[in-house]
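Final report, results section. Input specification for complex C-07:
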Amino acid sequence: MTPHVASQKNVYRFIAGKADGHGAMKDLLGGKGAGLAEMTAAGLPVPPGFTITTAVCHRYYAAGNQLPADVWEESCAALREVEAAVGKTFGDATNPLLVSVRSGAKFSMPGMMDTVLNLGLNHTTAQGLIQQTNNERFARDAHRRFIQMFGRIVLGVPGERFDHALETLKAERGIRQDIELTAADLQQLVAQFEAIVERETGNPFPYDPYEQLRLAICAVFNSWYGKRAVDYRRLNKIPDDLGTAVNVVAMVFGNMGDDSGTGVAFTRNPSTGEPVLFGEYLPNAQGEDVVAGIRTPQKLEALRETMPDVYAQFCEVAARLERHYRDAQDLEFTIERGKLWMLQTRNAKRTGAAAVKIAVDLVQEGIISPEEAVLRVEPNHLDQLLHPMVDPKADITLLGKGLPASPGAAAGAVVFDPDVAEKRAQSGERVILVRAETSPEDFHGMVAAQGILTARGGLTSHAAVVARGMGKPCIAGCGELILDATGMRLGGQTLAEGDFITLDGTTGRILLGDVPLVSPEIGAEFETFMRWVDDARKMRVRTNADTPHDARVARSFGAEGIGLCRTEHMFFEGERIDSVRQMIMVSGTYQRLIAALDKVAGDLERLRGDAQKVSALEAERAALEAELETPARLFRGALEALLPMQRADFVGIFEAMDGFPVTIRLLDPPLHEFLPHTDEEIAALAAKLNLSVQDVQSRVAALREHNPMLGHRGCRLGIAYPEITEMQVRAIFEAAVEVARRGITVLPEVMIPLVGDVNELRAQEAIVRRVADEVQQAAGVMIPYLVGTMIELPRAALTADKIATVAEFFSFGTNDLTQTTFGFSRDDAGTFLPMYVERKILADDPFQVLDREGVGELLRIGTQKGRAARPTLKVGICGEHGGEPSSVAFCHELGFDYVSCSPYRVPIARLAAAQAALRQPRA
Amino acid sequence: MTPHVASQKNVYRFIAGKADGHGAMKDLLGGKGAGLAEMTAAGLPVPPGFTITTAVCHRYYAAGNQLPADVWEESCAALREVEAAVGKTFGDATNPLLVSVRSGAKFSMPGMMDTVLNLGLNHTTAQGLIQQTNNERFARDAHRRFIQMFGRIVLGVPGERFDHALETLKAERGIRQDIELTAADLQQLVAQFEAIVERETGNPFPYDPYEQLRLAICAVFNSWYGKRAVDYRRLNKIPDDLGTAVNVVAMVFGNMGDDSGTGVAFTRNPSTGEPVLFGEYLPNAQGEDVVAGIRTPQKLEALRETMPDVYAQFCEVAARLERHYRDAQDLEFTIERGKLWMLQTRNAKRTGAAAVKIAVDLVQEGIISPEEAVLRVEPNHLDQLLHPMVDPKADITLLGKGLPASPGAAAGAVVFDPDVAEKRAQSGERVILVRAETSPEDFHGMVAAQGILTARGGLTSHAAVVARGMGKPCIAGCGELILDATGMRLGGQTLAEGDFITLDGTTGRILLGDVPLVSPEIGAEFETFMRWVDDARKMRVRTNADTPHDARVARSFGAEGIGLCRTEHMFFEGERIDSVRQMIMVSGTYQRLIAALDKVAGDLERLRGDAQKVSALEAERAALEAELETPARLFRGALEALLPMQRADFVGIFEAMDGFPVTIRLLDPPLHEFLPHTDEEIAALAAKLNLSVQDVQSRVAALREHNPMLGHRGCRLGIAYPEITEMQVRAIFEAAVEVARRGITVLPEVMIPLVGDVNELRAQEAIVRRVADEVQQAAGVMIPYLVGTMIELPRAALTADKIATVAEFFSFGTNDLTQTTFGFSRDDAGTFLPMYVERKILADDPFQVLDREGVGELLRIGTQKGRAARPTLKVGICGEHGGEPSSVAFCHELGFDYVSCSPYRVPIARLAAAQAALRQPRA
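Structure output:
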């Protein structure tokens, strides 16, 4: 025995309105024990009991797995008080007290540690239980379950032994369900189980209830170092030295006659938030009967008639609990012989709509403050308020499941080709685009479709990212989906073009036919709630939007600017792709000749004195210039053709974002993404551009890359082809000038992608500033603008101090940064990432939840170094994580100026930012 | 004028053995001025002159580009002393002093700033020069050159004006070479040039030598802010405020008759290091005549007969210079009328062999210490001592150039197929393997070949890495090389299988035919030198070796263990690839069934009470087990077949490395690298494994990845297929036990690749320790071993504190770390990296020279965090950088325990480590 605990209290009682402990003592009493003390002290009718502290757990182990004598004495004394409170006696032959013995650590470890119910039963007290309940079958069943549970958990008898005896008896009786066993059958099982225990342990089953109690307490302490619990703690990083408490609580029974019963209730409607008591009740029944669904429960109101006093007490208790816990509660209760016992209360689970209404109502009822209300709604729950859902009452036929890549529901005719999708949609049909996976070439089909289903790709695949940006449902990576020439096969069904399916993008379910949907209603409470949200948050919330339409949608959801406007999608629209492809076809030759001319010019400079060499070089220069003529005309011509189209895109976006900043990212993907890949498409392109098939093929082959993610893309393109950067910047500033003249406030922020070294940024910044100056000077209109970069490579974060000497803003591109920091290809990680998450190698998919340890460390380093070099540096995030609540919280902690996410996640990000600010106020 | 310089000396003289300054005053006098002062003070016959300080440069700019009056006065006074020293007078009509005016900053900025020679010439002094030299043509030519140079540099006349007049005159005369112009022609040019200057500037050419001097001094100061110089400083990070000094030095002429002459000499033979004076001499000539090669110079010894006193003086000067500068010197001298003038001395360039011999000789002569000797040899120069070279005397026909991917030279018959290479080599032929690019399947052909040539791929391509590891020459990425069915085309030649070529891997040259090679001789000096090297260094040097042969070679070069033994090459050898492919073919099914069984087992555990569900699950389990039978047999069978072969590999390597540690990396590449890709190969494999072609195709397709670099590889394989890890670990420890029993000391270090999270390492470590224990227990032999990881992902470095709780060693895999930190794919970066280096966006190719700012920062973070968590952590590097001198120095600075590199770079790494230790001693 360790001396330091001699003066400490070992046992904390919660009996009849008095509790030794309270809700904040989780370290000593564990979570469950602290909760029981809290409820008891609040005057609620809780079954009495006591908690043996976690400090005893340490003494137990220090003493070589022995329960200290003083603890046992205190426990027995507390048990006396419990007996007095319930009017039953432990081990009594006529009116026995039964107890449950449960573990309870500081942190919840569901299912990891052991529980024994109905402790105190033996052949004597079982008779008493029959008398109490007037239900022999119940008592016999409780007895055999107790032996089984105690045998397995406390005495270590393999569970299969009992299972085998049970199955054998059922086979003998010719029955399939346990419920068909009679009281006599169960009595026989009690005897068999006792025999099993004696055979397996060499000792008879302990008859003495006190011996049972002592053994059960020891078993709970022992289970703290059980394999399951140790594994669980290691995975969840819970320290081993916390220890567990033991809770001993009187059992109460709702099946002791018509003055008994059991029920569950919510203090407010969990679907709508309506402030009325809402629940079900079953007279003369135990909790498990409600769960088993054998008898149909009555509405809670029925209790008003049969037991008006109890009902009134319950209403009062419910109201008191709601005020005590300051939130809507989910209650479990039992009435034993006219006495109400509260078995559990916890904050009620609720829909998003209910969450908002309850939070707002609680404020208006004066129970919580607006700040607390903001903390009461799960950010992700807002998703339900923004998207249609499958009608919960509809009959459905499930075809299969995929990844829930973009939330909401949609129904439509399946089409397998983006052009067909567009055509059918134009004639007013609802369509669902079904593809193996999507690429930027499918964009117009995705625009036309109600929803998207793909066989391959993960939550950050092209289909998923684009669909979320458009707020359309998408189910990705449905591995069972088979696509062939005739259509699609899934869940044993074959569907042809035009057949209807319904997608539930929130859950990933694919349903057969045109299932009815329900639209969410956004009430006045939502407006009120979001006003409190915006009052609380410190970070700005922007959106990722590539089109005027998306920009307007995002603004209606409260976006305060665009954090990422990708320009590459624009390259695919309509006839532009032809110009883009023409440019790419000649780009190689063009670049080679420009480089050769540069070299000749350098040589000419160097060799100015040597007339002979000069004339040879001049001849070479002339030849190169002649050779360059056609490629240059085609290359620059293509860019000139693109310029007005790009400009028009930006005009629309600037109009939609009047007064808010718009971050435009220059061209990012590798050029080969714009080229066709199949032989047919290549032949068509060759014909269109008047080139040989072989020429097109060889250019396609030359641009192919082993690892395109790490290839010739981002600013590497703009450095190789400064003309592309020039064209894009010209389009931005010409558009800005045009709308500024119309009185619209334009705040462009030009973002250079994939910078790894400050020299890359410097080279591109020079072009941006030069062209911006030219356009502004020519127009006589000055536009306030910033030049910055996406921080999406580890090296950019590590050298952020250098990069910030040039960049006026950083936008962390956490999608790519996650890829390079982990060395995970988003397109390929599907083969092992799910396994990693399942086996708890990683807690979350880092493409969904920002990895604080690794990627987050780079965000920290990058922000700190960047702001050290440039204190006014604007810092934001534009990866998918910008709309994920815990990632948004992390950005708040790092002091970011803004987050940017897809339009439909803007309200979620606003809420997450507000919660982060309330939880961790910034200096 | 700024007051603070009033008391400062503006002009530092170096005249007749006396100098105001000395060699350490580079800040004030510039590099050149300090050197001239040093030589003069050392008593060497240097043409007299003076240096105007860099402080004056600041005063010049502060005064609005005006030369301060006191500076001009001091300069004129110094010029008086120069006149006295050489016995000529500035501006004199009969014996004129001419001077050169040159810039000279603290750091050398070659060609960036301006120089004026022969200053002091006009029509009067030109007559004097004719008298002095007795060579009118020389004097006229000097005069027209002076006007041209002064006109362009000092007066800003466009150089083309002069060029045009010169070309016109040559055309009139019908001549092509300047040398054919007569004295009269040149006199005519002088007049024309003066007219050009007057026309362009509006003023006559300055006649007064003092005016010329003043203008030239100002021009040098002005050139400090010339565009070229500013650009150069920005690129080379030289501060603008250093300023330049101006050096005014008396001109001396070697063409003043038979008692004059000019020459160059080395104090020791720069090819062999032999300690004898070695040089060439041309009587009655100027330095430019030697360079022009019109007259054949004599050996230096000729001077001994014609001017024995001068020769003796020169020998004495050479010896004195060598002692003064404590290194072999490269000298330029001129004899003017029997007087010796030293124009330049600098440390002599030399071959690797000479460098070693000179360093050792200098120690033995008592001139330098062994530590200094170690610092005197460029590590990369040792390469020359280890590889054959193309005989410098051989006639060669250059076919083309590629990247010098692996040094040394080799000649052989070209073959285009690895099997053919193997067959021809077995019959005793020398062959060169020529491929578009190589893959692991070409390994046996590379083993058989003398050298490798590829059309694609960079310095870290498969071909390059493997060739360097084998010490064979390789030229990679030869873009002009065209391969087709008939053979290869290069440099206008078509070569068929069997035609001979010679590769010079050191320079990247591809030569036609069987060119003779010379083998380097390693002398006794090398042994002595490397002994000093090893005394000096603090880091261990290991090698990257995958075979016993490579291990032995590396050990002969001084390797102290293996830092990286890759096991995947072993998978390709002989018939093993069949077993590997069989394993891969069933791996998908095997893994799916194992996972399904795991799930069923989990469900059974969970649902133990529910008999109905249990029996359904048991039926499912039985079905899955039946289905698993064949795949399991094939999967495990393949691994069992591989086990003895892997074990034999390790036995050989452990034997070769007796007493030294061997780091073995478990399987790293994605499985698809082991599969065939062409239709033919797929059909062959299907036939071999008795599978349908479609099955093989679909498995190949399933394993294909978008970005294999970031795909399912490294420890992700070992986690998905723990059986592979088990087999490899068993092979390692069974081999270790076997050789340990024979008295060999085995120190295995098991390295888990591509770890990004400590949980990955933990999962694999558990397997390693379990299997290692099993094998050791079974054998009754204990093997000391370590388990560690390769740090090759940014996240691994960022979370090194966590990883080091499990890892006993870190080996930085800087190849992959460079890829992910920069987001550069090694296989694709060839399209833009050369451009980046050329345009100075990056100073070096980061795959060759470790990037200290980004990748290096991760090394620093990783080492610091790792050692904080585990002070005994062993830290090394095993990327290609482990053999690159500046990267090795960086590893020393970070306190690494060792570097590991390919066998042939071991001596280089040893030297680099020694130099780093001498330059920056560790605490």
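Residues 611-656 of chain B form the longest helix (46 residues). The domain at 388-518 of chain B is CATH 3.50.30.10 (Glucose Oxidase; domain 1). This concludes the modelling results for the funded period.
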